[in-house]
Amino acid sequence: MARSTSKDAQDLFRALWSAYSATPTNLKIIDLYVMYAVFTALIQVVYMALVGSFPFNSFLSGVLSCVGTAVLAVCLRIQVNKENKEFKDLAPERAFADFVLCNLVLHLVIMNFLG
C-alpha cells in the first residue's frame, strides 16, 4: 500500500511539473518573485521567533510588506495570464501599471505605519 502511495505521489509530481513546464516565461518570473516575497516573510518570522520582536511595528511592517507584495504579484499573474478569459481585454502594460501603483500605495502605508 505504501509503495502505491509513493508511486502515485511521484506520478502526480511529474504531471504537475510537465504541466508547469508549459507555463510562459513571464508567469514563471512572477512565480519566482512571489516565492521570494513569501520566503522573505518566513525569514522575518523565524528571526522574530529566535531574537524577539522588540520593535513590533518594524516586524509587522516587514512581514505585511512581503505578504502584500506577494498578493499583488499574484493579482498581476492572474491579469497577465493569457488563458484567463476574465481579463482578456486588459493590456499587460495596464496590469503592470496597476501593480506598480498598488505597490506604491502599499509601501507608503507601510512607511506610515513604521512611524
What does this entry look like structurally?
It is a single chain. The relative contact order is 0.10. The radius of gyration is 19 Å and the shape is flat. It contains four helices and no strands.
How many DSSP helices? Answer: 4
- Helix-residue proportion: over 70%
Q: How far apart are the first and last residues' alpha carbons, in Å?
A: 58 Å
Structural classification = mainly alpha
Topology of this structure?
Layout: H1 2-21, H2 25-51, H3 56-80, H4 92-114
Helix pairs in contact: 2-3, 3-4
Explain briefly what this protein structure is.
Belongs to the DAD/OST2 family. This protein is mostly helical.
Structural key phrases:
mainly alpha; 115 residues; flat
